[in-house]
């Protein structure tokens, strides 16, 4: 019965996505890569949430909460502030320039080579880090929920490979052949299911702990584990309190404001108003994130104690333990949708980056739009296959899945954020400064985290990686400003208004954004 419900809901989402996107002009660039620039606020919000909220979040962050408690909620709550900044500051500039990809802005601000280098950095991060980790974490969850090893009579390793390839193949169909709108629509449908299903897990968990009473269950956990409800982490925590004011906000701004896999949804907005509504709606819902990706981990700790060798198993075990069997199939389908969302969103963005920023721009400038889309799809197939081969090989991620993902992402996130921020806030910093900042950012961070930290100073005597990100961000900004002072551009940079979309802002953007920021700060202080 569980499998039937799972297949029925998954098929329903696929049919809705196909019918809603079948008439789109997916053979031309805007139609395929940006959904014809027709996405509304609700669709953008749903797609943003599902692109972000996948198993590396649900499984990985709950695993982190299992170990450390509510302090890891910083990854969720502070994201809302970054989304407000994106809606107010970055999105108007993106839409004014009519860009399809973030590197396109870098071409107009700096030069063609900067755009190509940045696109390659994005693609490297997706194929080596993001896509395989999404597949691995998703396969781990699905394998646990359906007890695939017992069901098929295979080993845990074989079950992992089967699930990885199943998820990868289905996600590839959405991303490569459907285009952004098919991805965004499937995200929106699954977003509703994930919000409902995700909130059901802590509810049923608290009911189990409180003998049928949610409030009793919550009180029991708070009284039994008061240390798990401290929002301010110590120096040895995965998120020390001080990092909130250093690298944490930089990571959040990169992710929500410049990461192609995320911002591409807002770039597909029919106008600035809808884009800002979508970002702010998503940021408001994001405040509920800790109930889905943090609280279940604490409940799992109360129920299972320290019996788990791998904290990333906490969430799937909790689902199997507390969710009524009739709902397991539905929840697995929703979780499957979340897995697909992160995978196909990153894959669709990779296809976009390669087709627009590398193939048409560098390899064959005379390529037609149809040819650009066709080559991009072929590249997507190769990328998906590589990710499916790599995914099962990362089963032993150090320090937990979520922390490992965030630390490795620093190799490319901080250099890219640096050149975008300086690009928008200055007018005379030249292209050579951006190239120097990219190279120094990647090299210095890699040496810091993968040479000095483990082999020279040791894990316990080295600054937290979020502090390192902030230090390198400031250093690279200074390098760019010094180069800009010594070798300025001959002409001041101005954003050209392409008039592809209406950039009249939503009149309530500032007010709603301020309210969201106030709520975030209040929640954080309350649990301090």
Range of strand content: under 5%
Catalogue the unreliable spans: 24-35
**Count of folded domains:** 1
Which CATH class? Mainly Alpha
Profile the largest sheet. Answer: none
List the helices and strands and how they pair.
Layout: H1 2-21, H2 29-34, H3 41-52, H4 55-68, H5 74-97, H6 102-109, H7 112-145, H8 148-152, H9 156-209, H10 214-224, H11 247-257, H12 260-267, H13 272-286, H14 289-293, H15 295-304, H16 314-322, H17 325-363, H18 369-390, H19 401-425, H20 431-457, H21 465-486, H22 509-526
Helix pairs in contact: 1-9, 1-17, 3-9, 3-12, 3-13, 3-17, 4-7, 4-15, 4-19, 5-11, 5-13, 5-22, 6-7, 7-9, 7-16, 7-17, 7-18, 7-19, 7-20, 9-10, 9-15, 9-16, 9-17, 9-18, 11-19, 11-21, 12-17, 13-22, 15-16, 17-18, 19-20, 19-21, 20-21
